[in-house]
Amino acid sequence: MGWDNPRLDGTAPLARESGAQTAGTGALYTAEERRRRDESVWTTIQGVLAPLQFLVFLISLVLVIRFLMSGDGAGAADTSVVIKTLTLYTIMITGSVWEKVVFDRWLFAPAFFWEDVFSMLVLTLHTLYLVMLFGSFGSVEARMMVALAAYAAYVINAGQFLLKLRAARLQAAPTNTVAA
């Protein structure tokens, strides 16, 4: 079943063309999606969690690099990556709820399809780190390299979302028309 086919309950999905924007308008959100986005508590939750996750990322990145450079602080680095992973899981779960509220899809809404695809890579790498940590697979150094790969993917993914946020703000900005 394709993404734009009717849902299993027989109702039609929200009117939206496949791709990242509303058909013909270049708009990120339809008027109804924008209303739901603006009225949803999940928008505020995402707005709080995103910078919190970034702060946790920065602290953890420093601790991971410190360990890789000096060999000191493996426990602190591991703890920080676990906390970063938990914040990632939290923002992914709440982001999925946000997508359901705004776009009537738990994930892979056309407007955020590629961001969600890349988020799956970020989740996979963070989860691999946890498997290595709690399953005692590989060396500490190998685990920290997986953390760095996860963090590189996270930075790319965060950039995707920042570009989308900018696009949404530009869409919301009133157009300045000059009368002739």
Tell me what you see in this structure.
- This protein has 180 residues and is an all-alpha fold.
- It has five helices and no strands.
- The protein has helices spanning 31-39, 41-70, 74-103, 113-135, 140-172.
- α4 packs antiparallel against α5 (140-172).
- The longest helix has 33 residues, at 140-172.
- The protein is elongated.
Features of the shown structure:
mainly alpha, disordered N terminus
Topology:
Layout: H1 31-39, H2 41-70, H3 74-103, H4 113-135, H5 140-172
Helix pairs in contact: 1-3, 2-3, 2-5, 3-4, 4-5
The end-to-end distance, rounded to whole angstroms, is 51 Å
From the helix content, strand content and strand pairing, which structural class follows?
Answer: mainly alpha
Largest sheet, in brief, is:
none
Radius of gyration: 19 Å
Secondary structure: number of strands: 0
Spans with pLDDT under 50 lasting ≥5 residues? 1-25
Share of β-strand residues: under 5%
Order of helices and strands: HHHHH
General form: elongated
Q: How much helix is in the residues?
A: 55-70%
Please state the average pLDDT score. Answer: 85
Number of helical regions: 5
User: What oligomerization state is this entry in?
Assistant: single chain
